[in-house]
Every structure is written in C-alpha cells, then in structure tokens.
C-alpha cells in the first residue's frame, strides 16, 4: 500500500494538525481527545451544531467547521465512530448556553456513541438534541434492518442547521428544520474502485475491470449489488431512478443537487456526471435551483460518486445561500 | 469451585492477547461484509484495558474489574462494538456487585446480564447475524450447565463451545442489524465479525478459569 | 480502463457542458470551438485574462473563470494544447477594449499555439500580451532545454492577474505584475500513481509498490527521478529542499503556500502533507501568510501532490485576498 | 519525371492511413518520454485533413493542397506537433507556389523549406531528439539525390530511408527540446515520437510518388 501518510495510526491527528496549520483564523483543534471547534467557540446565545463520525470522509466533517455551518466536528479513527469522551469534550467546548445539536449519520456505532455522549453531556447540564441523517436509498427493507445509512445528505443538513443557528433559531426549531430536510433528502452512490484503509493496507473490496459497486456506502462496505461497468450517463440514470423512485418529485419542483465525489474521482468526471443529472432532471421538469459539485463526503481514495437530491422551498434556499466560511465550503463572505 | 478477581483479570489479559493475535482475521471478516475495522477496534480497546490492569487495587472485586473494562472499552473502542461490549461488561459488573467469588450460577447470570445489555442497546434479536447470536447461545449453554450443577470450568467451556458454534452458524444468514444488513443477500456465506470476537472472548474466559480457578 | 465518462473523445465537451449546467450564473461556454467565458464577458474597459492548455488539469483553467480571476479559459484535448482557433475565438469574446492577457504554461505546444493565436488576434485588432509561467523546479538545465514547466504556479498568476484586472490595472501593469509573480513562484511535485489518459486507456507510467515519481509533471510525463517510497513527511522535506535551493527564502519572509493535489489524492492526505510544510517552514523562520490546500492543478486521476511557494509582499497579499467567484475558488463574496 | 497535385493528395491520404494505423505505436512512444498524445494528435489532424480533401477543386496546385493541409493541421492537431507540422506544410506550400509539377529539385526545396519552418518555430537543432532530426537527414538525402539527378521516386525513397534511420538514431539521445527534455538521462533508449511520425509521413510521400508519378 502506498499512501501519502506517515504512521497509519496517526492519520487523524496529523490531518487535524494540518487543518489547524492551514486555517488558524477559522478553527482550533484538540488532538487528545480529537475534535475541532470554530475559532470563536463558544458563541454565546447561539445553538451549537456538532457532528462527527469515523474519519476517512474528509472534508466531512472537520472541513465544515466555521461560521455558518458546524461549531464542532469530532472525528473518530478511520471509518470508526468516535467514542463518547471526545464528543462530550467538544460539546462542552462549543455550548454557548443555547444547547447543542448533534447531527449523526445513521450507523449503529455513531448512533450509540453519540447517544451515550448526549446522556453524559446532559448530566453536565448541557441541553443536547440529536438528529439522525439517513438519506441513502441504496439500503432497502429499512424497517427490519439497521436502517438507511447517512451519506452526503449530512452535508446538507449541517449547512442548513448551521445557517439556522447563525440567524438565531432555537434548538427546537433547528431540530424541526433538520428533520424536515432529512425527510426530503435522498442519495445514492456508485464506486468503480475500492478505498484502502490505512491501517489494513488492503483494498476494502476487489472489483474486476468490468464491474462497479452500485449503491455503495462510504466505508468500503460493498454496495447493493455488483453490476456491469457502464458509461457514466447510464450510472447516473440508474442512481436517479432509484432516488426518484424512493421519493418521487413532481414536475415543476425546485431541487438542490449535490454531485459528490468519493475521494479520488477527478473533478472533470464529476461535472460530466452532473451534466447527465441536469439533462435527466430537466426532462422530468425538475428545476435544479442550487447545486454543489465536489468531493465532499468521501471514502478515502475510493473512485466513484453519489447524487443527493433535496427538494427546496424559499426558506431552504435562503438557508443554503446564507454565508458560510469553512475550510471546504465558502460563500457569501 | 468458584472464580474470582484473578479470573476476571486473567480473562481480560487473555482476551487482549487473543484479539491482538486475531486482529487481521477479524478485520478481514469485517472487510467482507462491513467496514474492515473490527479487528483494529477490539485490539485498540483491549490494549487500553491492558494498560489499566496493572493499577487495579489488591482488594478489587470482580465487579470492580468488569466496570473498569466496561468504561475503558466505551472510551476506546468506538464504532458499534464499543458501546455494545461496553454495555455488556457494565451489566456484567452490576450483576455480580459485591461478590468476591463467583460460582457457576453467578457466571451464568453474568453472561445473561451482559447479553441483555447488548440486546437493549443494539435492538438485535438472535438470528440477525450479530454478536447477539454468539452471546445468546453461550448464555443458554451456561444456564444449562449451571442447572446441571457443573463447575465454572466446565460451564465456561460449554459457553465458549456454544459461542464458537453460533459464530460459525452466522455464515449462512442474511444480516438484519449492523453494517452487514446493507448487503442483503450478499452477506450470505460470511461470518459475522462481532460473533467471532465474542467467541474468542468467551474462549478466553474458559481458558482463564482453567488457569485461575481454585478447587 | 474504468473511468466515469462516456465517449473518451467527448470528455472535454461534456465536462464543459456539466460546468455550464452547474454554474449558469458564473460562466458561459462554447463547445465548437471549445472555450469558457465569464457570464458578463466582455467587461468593457477591463483587461481580460485568458488562460488555457490541455485538458486533464481540472479545475484549472475552466474552474477559475469568473469575477476576480479568468475572463476566459480555452481547454484543448486531454494533455494537448488547444489550437489557435478557439484561443482567438475566446479572445474576441472577452476583449473589453483594454486588451487581453494570455497566461500560458511553459510547454512547447502551448507556447506555439498561443503565439499563433496572439498573432491572429492582433491582426483582428485585439491587443494581446502573453506571460509564460515556468515554476517547476524539477526541470534542470533549463538554459539548453524546453525550459521549466508551468504547473500550479499558474493558478497563483491567474488569481493575481485577475485581481489586478478587476481593480483596473492596465495591460502593461498586469504583465509586469505577472512577471514579478512568475519570478517568485517555485513548485515541485511527486506522484505515487500514474494518470490514465481516457483515449489511451493505459496508465502513463508504471510504478512499483515501493516507488514514487519525484519531480513529476502534470501530463503523466515521468518525473526527475524514480525514487523510493517514503513517509509523506520525507517527501515534503525533499520537495521543499529542492524549492528552497532553487530560490532561497530568507528567514522572516512571508509566503503563500499552495499544497496542490494531483487529482486523486484524498483531501486528508493533502492536509497531512501541509502539516509538514508548516513545520519545515516554521523552523526556517518563514511565515505562511496565506495558504491554499486542494486539488486544483491536477493530472487526471494521478495520486500525488505538489508544493508551490510564493514570497509575498503587502500588494500581493491584497491581490490574493481580493474577492474571487469561480467554480473552484471563491472568497470575499 | 515530376509529381503534381495528385501526388500531394495521395501523400496526404497515405499519411492519414499510416498515422491512423500507427496511432497506438506513436502514443506509446510519447507515453514513454512525453504525455502519450502524439498518436492521437496526428490521427486527429490527418483525419481532419482527409475530410477536406474531397472538396479540393480540380485546378488546385500542389501549393494549394499543401496550404490546406497546413491550415487544417494548425487548427486541429494542437500540442507541439500542430504548429510545427503546420508551419512545415505552410513553408512547403510557399516554396512551390505557382508550380503545377514538381521535379526532384523542387521536392528537395520543399522539404528544406518545411524543415526550416520547423526549426524557426521550435528552435530545435539536429541531435536534440525531435522531429528536426528526421527532417534534417531527409533534407540532406533529398538534396544529395537531386544533385545526383535522380528522379522524384528515388529521391523520396532516399529521404524516407534517411528519416527512418534518423528516427531510430534518436533512441540513444538525451532530449533537449520538447517534453522529453524534462527527463534528462531517462529519455535515453526511447525513440522520439515526432521523429517517428516524420519518418512515417515521408515514407507515405515516397509511396505516393510511386503510385502517382508520371514517367
Ligand atoms: N445492533 C447491533 N446489535 C448487536 N450487535 C451489533 C449491532 N450492530 C453491529 N453489531 C455487531 O458489531 C460488529 C461490528 O463491530 P465494529 O466493526 O467494531 O463496528 P462498526 O460496525 O461500527 O464498524 C458486527 O459484526 C456485529 O456483530
Ligand atoms: N521545440 C521543438 N522543435 C521540434 N520538434 C519538437 C519540439 N518540441 C517538440 N517537438 C516534437 O513534437 C513531438 C511531440 O508532439 P506531441 O506529442 O503531439 O505534442 P506535445 O508534446 O505538446 O504533447 C516530439 O516528439 C518532438 O518530435
Ligand atoms: Mg467502523
Ligand atoms: Mg466495522
Ligand atoms: Mg500533449
Ligand atoms: Mg505529446
């Protein structure tokens, strides 16, 4: 395995140190326990937005810490949820008296560890609420399983929550808003190469030259099915079909599309995929009111992409457009 | 015959050793139907436990040591396995509070409490291809052994046998909980890593009893 | 070869179409001939900044079209300079009467094609000036060869030129400023995997598991030397050594550092590399006044990174900080 | 014996065919010491030329066709090869302006003018491992052949032989121009793709003369 790292067990710490070195005006880090908070945390009177989960999805979540988005990010080891301790420490570091919202992606490990952290933080007098993001339509039968995964929809929830907190919404209102976004957001992804976890050094799965993992997650777990490699237009068509089948969107609707790279996908290929998304949605009479194209919710060095579609109304557009200033997302300032 | 604090300590040490030995194997199992970190997670957790065992006071009860293991795992494993194993040891600790020595029925009760904790946190039923499968069969074996008035060494051996069989029996199953549930039919033919680590840990418990039981 | 594309010969066109679909407020495209101009082009009375070159380096250059940076980008086929025709067409589309500056990376093909385009555009009455970026210190003996290559330094020149044009500098002043930046900027890169050109389908070179290409270019051409794989800190040390040997920087100086990913390098690894850059420069008494970490000047799906160091003064800081609004770089608005 | 417009047309068609056949080979050569696109570039250029040949008017002179090839290559090849070959054909066109038929010395002059154009644009000297190496030796062979009063068919065969030998002779060289110059010593042992495409094109010229020369 060749990776541009040093000690495989130090990747999370060293990443945080690099992030802090690059963005001193934006954020502060703690390495033991590992968390990132915005430079001016805690912001008195503002609800704090905290997210986290296993590492390996960069820039999610640490790259979204800053004004207008996350107050704190808590990265666990690669693909492994953080334990409650750093979550609690980060919670205390960002609580400005108005409570803390946990944005958790729906994985058993994340849910359980954030659950414990919330209990512990509450014991210490911090008001904590949790929303669980589960936008991945690749997982079926969710009634009888661990349920849908949280993937790139988390980014949208974090952006909207951060904007709402910045404008002064209270914790209840933000929880309500997030649940609404979670109800709307749907995603699905495909991969043409596996990721390689640093400490194992082995690719997470092996794909033949004519295969793709369809309905892939973001932890190297295999997808819904292994299917035949096809031109990207066909892959986009199939992803959109699954997304729109799961939650149909009426002609005339306005949507946000996030065309997300999985880590090692060239930017040009993301735009080629986006081109097809635009064609398909246009022919369905769905208007792409906002879009974001980039490698934002990744799976180490996996090649692939996911599509997230979120129907928008005026309020969501306003919150999406609100200024954000983080390492990975920045506009309006 | 009973087991005591020395048994818990030895169990923890043997668990650490065996999980470190099988780190790659557990990682491979998890890579096939999960995210590949289970070996790493368990090894990290029990390495942290090992670092704390030397400071355990002379007069610590089995319950004290089990609680130390629980809190250490919770704050070092992460993932799904961290809170689940953590809760298991926490409930185990509570179930033997204030006892210095554990007889067969106390051990069976300890396992039952641990399993209940896992089920409460993770909401998995037996047959859903998780560590619950291994714990549940181990508890049944332990209760039967206790009912037959067998000694702890024998009870723990039966529990370990049962857990191993249960781990193997997860192979043909479709998963309904944990990451493997995302795979649907594709999980068939693969052993659940958490069931396998449970089998390893329960075998360590049996070996520890042989090494430390007074008779 | 698996790539997230359709027809390998259509990648540039389809990329442009995707770009246009994602950023309708920012830019307009032409596909035959292929070029991109900012949405409000031509801007009357403003010097227009135009760049271009072979495709495969995205987001360079098309991702830098917009207010505060490029007025036009002209992408050729993958790794192949565009011909004069589209350059001339783009020149006419952005000329606002104050002249057009070509920012050209120093490759024979680019230099010759832009040279011809400049002649043709001049015949049509457009005032054209050209600056050639040659920041790559990996190439030695430049006196007797094609000279140094232009790599990630091009981004810096484009940003500074765009800001200067936006504040109203005339063509001469901008040429002068760009030459100053080119005199200051130094870069070098390393790769651990090759790129694969779409129409060939073969990796551009083959590296063993314990090898890296040191002093790599951005077209899959092999590097200065094939050396042993090493922890990223060591690779950073060697790159910085070559950069600082080529143009020593005094302790107490302030610099801009661009830590640039080569296309398929995970963002986390870029930050791990940046961490080391920060350590080394700090210990040399050099202050990182501004930094940029991201995959910005790429080589298709190559894994690797380059470091660019540019000494700064107050004017350059001001121009770097000036608002920019493009698909790939955005701040200040 | 002379050659005329038919020769230029046939030369272009044969060039297109041979460059398309050798597209991968030229790409591989360029991949080794450049960026791998030379086969693609030349194929794209001559495919564009082919598309224009049908519209060439009956009364076109050799110079007209050479100019059409030049402008088409300039606007379709890109890279270094586009302007260099483009200039070559442009100068070739100028060198035979207003002639309907070309004798041996006109052909030698045409090659000399083409080569001068390449050198002027690219500033490469012979021995720097570029297409200039092939053109230069071909011109020498052509001039010698013309001096020996040989016929065009023979002249063109000698020029093609010389270009092929020159292309092979680029292998041991270090490059001083073009992308291969970035490699320093690492370029040794690899043939220059532009010299190779020149050899192919000049062989096409010789074959076209055999097919179209009046005698
Ligand atoms: N809901 C659950 N109930 C019981 N056990 C579970 C549950 N979810 C996961 N597990 C167990 O956890 C194991 C995976 O642990 P691990 O890989 O460490 O965590 P993660 O899945 O977060 O990466 C699975 O093999 C399974 O046995
Ligand atoms: N300065 C130069 N003078 C003459 N020929 C050159 C020069 N630079 C490059 N070449 C020729 O061009 C060839 C490469 O052409 P091509 O691959 O199409 O363009 P690029 O190098 O832009 O990718 C080289 O093999 C060499 O023969
Ligand atoms: Mg995990
Ligand atoms: Mg796991
Ligand atoms: Mg090229
Ligand atoms: Mg080339």
Explained architecture:
The complex is a heterotetramer, with two copies of chain A (333 residues) and two copies of chain B (215 residues). Chain A is an alpha/beta fold and 333 residues long. The longest helix of chain A is centred in the C-terminal third of the chain and has 17 residues, at 267-283. In chain A, a hairpin with a 2-residue loop joins strand 1 and strand 2 (34-38). Chain A is built from eight helices and 15 strands. The radius of gyration of chain A is 19 Å and the shape is globular. In chain B, 68% of the residues lie in helices and 0% in strands. At the A-C interface, helix 1, helix 6, helix 7, strand 12 and strand 13 of A face helix 1, helix 6, helix 7, strand 12 and strand 13 of C.
Task: Summarize the entry for a quick read.
Chain A is of the alpha/beta class. Chain A contains eight helices and 15 strands. In chain A, 66% of the residues are buried.
